[in-house]
Amino acid sequence: MHAIEKTAPRLVGGEPAGAAPETGQPEDPAESKGSSRKIGRFVLRRLLLFIPTAIGAGFLTFLLVKIIPGGPAYARLGEDATPQAIAVVEKQLGLDRPFFEQFFSWLGRAVTGDLGESFQTGQPVMDLVKNALPVTIELVLIGIVATVLIAIPIGVFTAKRAGRPSANFVKSVSGLGLAVPDFFLALLLIDLFAVWLGWFPRLGYPRFTEDPLGNLYHIVLPVVPMILGGSAIVIRQVSAAMIDALASDHTRTARAMGIPERVVVWKYAFRAAMPTVLNVVALLALGMLGATLIIEKIFVLPGMGGTLVNGIAVRDYTLILGIVLIYVVIALLVNLIVDIISGIVNPATRGA
């Protein structure tokens, strides 16, 4: 014990040496201003990168949709339509123009918020998006918040007890969660809780603005498979990051100085693991966004995923383009926000 006391760095203002001690001295205004400028430049770089990335993603989306077998004309006229009839419909829809002319025309309208009209229903795609997006956002937000509140504490618990039976049990259960697909869990939950026990409804979705309690009651079954699958990933990633953080010299020094274990875990180790946690939450958000394609279809929810699947089934070219573009923009925004937060939390990433 005496040897530890001799070799361990002393505390400065309650922090281990080398850990940005809080000395109580006023911060140098010049240093604070310089740090703010660095953060501002970092955020500006990320915002400038967002624009070409969004355009590139839009181009790939447009290209992929164009090479889908069949097309809107076939969907309207049927597989037995003659080439002459197909050509007439394609001309009416503007699909006979050169590829890049179509792309830049679509991109120009999309920038102004005009995503065109659905080939199937004739409704503006933006109106369909406005109606469906709140459903998907609600599903994803509830899934993320519940997963973070459940999985992060369990991941920290597993890291603190690494190698013990309780930690091994949690890892085994989370591994099972990774192995079981969301759609299988969804069907299992429907059979068990909706059909057999009758605890939850199988179908229906009242809007939150119309019936808040009914809305939450109907959203339970759809969101549970997303929470279970997401928790399995977050638990493992947070546990691995926390094991490394708890074994670092920084936290060992804090323990040697007699700092309470709870403070060591949450103030020092968890702070060190924060960049990993943020990246995991970003991946979780993107994964849940993708999971809505299946979940909304299974539970017949009027969200973006279900609307997109229906559009693909009838080859509604404009609807597919519009919804996929919205998905891409949301994914890019999530990455942008996480990059900015990571840059603020961890200055080492600002030059990336």
Automatic annotation (TrEMBL):
UniProt domain ABC transmembrane type-1: residue ranges: 133-338
Membrane-spanning intervals of the chain: 47-68, 135-157, 169-196, 216-235, 277-299, 319-345
Residues in the signal sequence: none
UniProt superkingdom: Bacteria
Keyword Cell wall biogenesis/degradation: no
Residue spans of biased composition, Low complexity class: 13-27
First-listed, main subcellular location of the protein, grouped into a coarse class: membrane
GO cellular component, one term: plasma membrane
Its membrane topology: Multi-pass membrane protein
Compartment(s) where it occurs, according to its Swiss-Prot or TrEMBL record: Cell membrane
Pfam families: BPD_transp_1, BPD_transp_1_N
Keywords: Cell membrane, Membrane, Transmembrane, Transmembrane helix, Transport
A GO term, aspect molecular function: dipeptide transmembrane transporter activity
Region (Disordered), start-end ranges: 1-35
Family as reported in the entry's similarity comment: Belongs to the binding-protein-dependent transport system permease family.
Protein name as annotated: Peptide/nickel transport system permease protein
Species per Swiss-Prot/TrEMBL record: Antricoccus suffuscus
